[in-house]
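Open question from group meeting: does this chain pack into something compact, or does most of it stay loose? Before anyone orders reagents, we agreed to write out a predicted structure and look at it together. Recording both the input and the output here so the notebook holds the full record.
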Amino acid sequence: MNQVEQVEIKKDDDLIKNERVKALKNHLELNDEETNQITLENGKYFHFGDKEYLVLTEDEAEEKATDYIKESVWAFNSSFLSSHTGIDEDVFKLLSEKCEDSNDAILSMIKNFDHFVSDAISSDGRGHFIASYDHDEHIEEINNTEYFIYRTN
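Structure tokens returned:
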């Protein structure tokens, strides 16, 4: 029996960076000269003029949104938290007064964190949690890879 071995083709960092730049170029509708003005800072934030963007793969966007949600459960509205914990809304209203200090306590009450994240994203969209500027998510496809673009300032 012949077994067909599937080989995962890994893209090198420069190619991935170039694809991200192309995705941002398409999204912003830039010409080649303008595209040359895009800079990369801190290894992940692309700048064009005074605007800053994250250009992420699907997995990276999911991870980024999940991390944000995990760090900010204290800021969710009490009815949403109640629906995912079975605990009365009034408890969360009181805890919300402690702001960030209540985050770990609230996080420990959530029955199924993956479902919580999924529900939050389906309610508000990933852009709400990643794109601090306008809460929008934009998609550009380059070489059969979808890139998700978020403006952060």
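Observations to bring back to the group:
The helical segments are 13-28, 32-35, 58-71, 78-85, 89-96, 103-109, 113-124, 126-130.
Residues 13-28 form the longest helix (16 residues).
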